[in-house]
Amino acid sequence: MWNVKTKSAAxxxxxxVSLAGILALALLSxxxxxxxxxxGFQAPLTGFAATDGxxxxxxxxxxxxxxxxxxxxxxxxxxxxxYDDQAxxxxxxxxxxxxxxxxxxxxxxxxxxSASGRAAAPVFQKAGVLMISAYGVHPDITRAGDxxxxxxxxxxxxxxxxxxxxxxxxxxxxxxxxxxxxxxxQATMDGFLEDAPKYGIQVVNKYSxxxxxxxxxxxxxxxxxxxxxxxYATGYFFTAGPLVAQLRAGGVTAxxxxxxxxxxxxxxxxAGPAAEGTYIVDSFDRGRNDAALQKFFAEFAKRAxxxxxxxxxxxxxxxxxxxxxxxxANSADPPKVRDAxxxxxxxxxxxxxxxxxxxLHEVIEAISVNVVKGGKMKSFTKLNDLEAFAPxxx
Amino acid sequence: MxxxxxxxxxxxxxxxxxxxxxxxxxxYGLLRILHVAHAAVFALGAYATVLVANAxxxxxxxxxxxVAVTPLFGMAVYRLLYEPLxxxxxxxxxxxxxxxxxxxxDAFRIAFGEQGVTFRNNRFAFTxxxxxxxxxxxxxxxxxxxxxxxxxxxxxxxxxxxxxxxWRATVSRPKIATSFGVDVVKVRYMNFAIGSALAALxxxxxxxxxxxxxxxxxxxxxxxxxxxxxxxxxGSVRGTLIASLALGMVESYGTIFMxxxxxxxxxxxxxxxxxxxxxxxxxxxxxxx
Amino acid sequence: MSAYDVSLLSVIGLxxxxxxxLNMISGFCGQVxxxxxxxxxxxxxxxxxxxxxxxxxxxxxxxxxxxxxxxxLVVGFASLRVRSDFLAVTTIGVNFLxxxxxxKQSWLGGExxxxxxxxSGFSSAGNMVMILxxxxxxxxxxxxxxxxxxxxxxxxxxxxxxxAATLGINSGAYKLAAFGIGTALAGLAxxxxxxxxxxxxxxxxxxxxSVMLMAMVVIGGIGSTAGVVVAAVALTLLPEAIRFxxxxxxxxxxxxxxxxxxxxxxxLADLARRLLMREAKA
Lengths: 394, 289, 282
Known about the structure:
The complex is a heterotrimer of chains A (394), B (289) and C (282). By secondary structure, chain A is of the alpha/beta class. Chain A folds into two domains: 37-153 and 288-361, Rossmann fold (3-Layer(aba) Sandwich), CATH 3.40.50.2300; 156-281 and 370-389, Rossmann fold, CATH 3.40.50. Chain A has 13 helices and 16 strands. In chain A, the strands form four sheets. Chain A has a seven-stranded mixed β-sheet, with helices on both faces. In chain A, a hairpin with a 2-residue loop joins β11 (347-349) and β12 (352-354). In chain A, α2 runs parallel beside α12, α9 (237-249) packs parallel to α10 and α12 (310-329) packs across α13. Chain B has a single domain, classed as ABC transporter involved in vitamin B12 uptake, BtuC. Chain B is built from eleven helices and two strands. Chain B has helices at residues 2-31, 38-56, 59-82, 91-112, 138-160, 162-172, 174-179, 184-210, 217-231, 237-257, 264-278; strands at 128-131, 134-137. Chain B has a two-stranded antiparallel sheet. Chain C has helices at residues 3-28, 36-54, 57-81, 84-104, 124-147, 149-159, 161-166, 171-197, 207-220, 225-241, 243-247, 249-263, 267-281, and strands at 114-115, 199-200. The mean pLDDT of chain C is 87. Chain A binds chain C through residues 45-46, 84, 86, 88-90, 93-94, 97-98, 100-102, 115, 118-119, 122, 127, 138, 140, 181-183, 185-187, and chain C through 2-8, 11, 103-104, 110-113, 115-116, 193, 196-201, 203-204, 246-250.
């Protein structure tokens, strides 16, 4: 008896409350219900790339919260619509279609790997959706159309910068080149090989390994036989760590220069004392005297439990840049946001100053080089010779 | 010198694979089941080693913990997953095993993070020795030493002890073994226990060698170990050892000379398939085709 | 129908084709194939290259089918030399050989894959319809074979090759037939996939995919076309329907596989059969 009474009371109360709520809202706003600006988000939340996906998502959420705390853009709050693309092309297309069809999203930040970014780009372009690729390096991403933007240096320009650094700054002549055989590794190495002769670098030998390799005995033995002045390698932290450790353990004393994805505290953890002195080209200058950067650092470390890497920083900046473009365009309409983005000049990314975008919507930005010292990533130098590693125009 | 270097590398690869594959061979020899989830046992051993080592400060304690815990897991897998499926087609338990592996790998990712866990104080991977101009590190030596000990030990166990002989009998002639009073069920449990402990040992050693234990650490094991035991003649421990060393050598030299056309995994499988076509029973197996 | 629904149905159609074709090889004929992804991939690459060279949709799909079948026949010959477990490992090897080889060949796109594959000329909805028609055809072929003498021969070979020989069944020929037909359909699916995404990379056709396809066959019920279709549809929809499943995809997938095998090794088809029998008795 008791229960029935209480239940019906609750039942009766519910509709009254909601009705009142709706009335109140309608009275207060007087205009149709406020829409939020949806920002689509693709990242590899599961699968082999889950590490970066998780970092990217946390960073994006941080950016959204910060923007909304400051009042949002155009008087509206921003809403992140995240999907897991598992860093696979078919999932990328699938989730892209979801964002377009189900969620009606018009602006997307793609924080995933190259292949998935490449697969999603034409889908978005065809649907008139603007996409910023935070760190995906497949060249065809920006070629998919004028609504595509990329916030990271392409593989080949990174390789060009590495050649410049090794030849002009380190004055090394004989290099053993070790590539990770996926698109990122190969594209970067191709850039390096292309420009190496320009700086008098002679590539003694080329080697490659796959993503799942952790044992590099054969490569180490071969590099030892090469007796190079230096070693240039592309890879992710989980291959870079063992590789560098084994190179040093095997008796290779020449300087080791790594590519962007080496740039992680985890790399230092795995390689231990062997990591000392490793150079990393196109790295994340963590020690920059920048209040926003230090604040980001602290907050991200608190949320994730580990310090932020390049992926996190660039994703955060991608979202912030998107919001900034919306503000400058005074609209969330893709063509207008596109124009505002293309007109960006000297925008402070967490990773450095974005001087601007070129015709293909690739970044024009200096490249910083880190070195591992005392078990930490320290800034070594900054390559400002923009011409040497200019991104392609088409 | 270079070729000797490659040879030593091949040897250490080979011993690593041998340690990984021997547990799988033991299970197949007894039950004719391809225990793909062996890779999960391997990964579990690796995680146990690194987590306990980091918590206690002693790598040795980590190994002990791994070798103590994984047999329980292995026996549970037998009891809960394989035993009820013994009468079905051979691929049924194998696919269940694959399902278990996929599940466990994701569980490791969720529980311990995508980035993996590193050893806090890993002196061994960074301590190197110069043996006649070839550099090896302490872990590689440990792997090779362990492989030697394990295989000699298994050999002695199965030829000199009562329990071991009973085990061998159960593998080749289960009905006769029972009539001699061998408890087949006990043998099965022992089989899984020993196989799992060896996998855990291998896992801990590989984790120490890489200085990284990540959720995908079992991935390589799952298919390569399978291929190895097939090559070695399913069920033959001696064959597994030979096949492992052979594969290690092929990979070490092969990646340098064939690196432009095939990646490392493909080279291993190419060698495997080629051998299988020539000798379908593997190195030491008897022809059942 | 939104873009999402279209792409969802397309993926379902492709998965149905793949699972049903695998069922012909591993279910009907009992030849364990854990490398089905390789035939799917071979078909996709063949179709993509043909399309770029000829701009003919029909020719591309045809080439996809043929290349898939050719590769399948090669593997089929391997199955004549080795028995079940060895065969399983060989098919895994074929899968890795395929992806390992493709990634290194620049004329196959290497790591970058093949992008900018010309469209089929249909809209996405048109592509979806094409896929669904072929999927229906695949199911029809599967049912037909199942009820025909060929299906009987397949099952005989699957259960007891020696006994089958006494019936005058040339098990070798039938194994080849099973591989040829099953992989041809997988190759066709590959061609359709190439038009669907217009961008293919080697890692789509990896071992994990092959495992997932085998899981669909097992969960559906090895040998049952209807069961496999249901499983393919359900397992494609599940991550979409339940967010939790999407985030912990592999955990759920693996767990389901283990549970189904443990509790109902005959798969959904077997469950359905037993339920129907019980109803019939009552």
